[in-house]
Amino acid sequence: MIVITTPTGDIGRQILDRVLGSGAAVRVIARDSSRLPERVRTQVEVVEGSHADANTIAKALQDADQLFWLVPPADFHDAEPARRHYLDFTRAAAQEAASRGVRMVHVTSLGHGYDGEAGLLSAALDMDELIESTGVQYRALALPFFMENILRQAQPITQQGVFSLANSADRPLPTVATRDVAAAAAALLLDPTWKGQARIPLVGPDNLNPDAMAEIISGTLGRQVRYEQVPLPDFRARLVQHGASPSLAREWADMVNAQNNGIYDAEPHDAVCATGFRQWCQDVLEPAVPTGA
Fold this sequence. Notes:
293 residues, alpha/beta, Rossmann fold, seven-stranded parallel beta sheet, two-stranded parallel ribbon, globular
């Protein structure tokens, strides 16, 4: 039995589709089962509730072999400290999985070994230490910047010909497509042979800075798109203006500062994923930003 959390999220949904295609027995944890497509509800067992809840986790892991674990974002408007959120959310699941011999495949950040504060990324790396300390067998999928983050820029790309982040314009920013993350996670969940504890960095084949990304976006969409770097203090202030709690805004800014300081280079990695940024732009971004708009 394979247990999947966040089955309606971007990564969880793609993993679920891949695992169901194999014919494996699947159980999902969902706060609201009505959000699952009907075709999915007919193929899976559903445990309703939060996967942070110890009773929900205990019920979901009965007779299970594998668990896909992803911590959802904290509440944007009233977020608790990220470390507390990640650790409190994960503790019961890691302990329960360890006691039952369930192997975990979980999503975390690339950057193990980084010496410095990294906000949300530090919280994810602290979660890894918690999971490891329980003795559970796991594979940690260590990820850099998601290509899908660019989709949040669809409106300014369409209306203004610009996308903006607080990341340094001229520093390479390793990226990964969520479809490659889902493929790797599904393969591990369907593989009964691996043992022990290990990290698996997943990085796309490019090593582009945001200025270079803008050039590729321009070529893909057939229109000029430029990159605009937002100063970190302005970035943090904008988050608060849009309703983020001050603590979350600070931790988000700390994350970007760590990216600008090379956190992803702290952990050895190769370009192991198939999807390059240009291919992702053609397959995902272009349909979201019609060239005729």
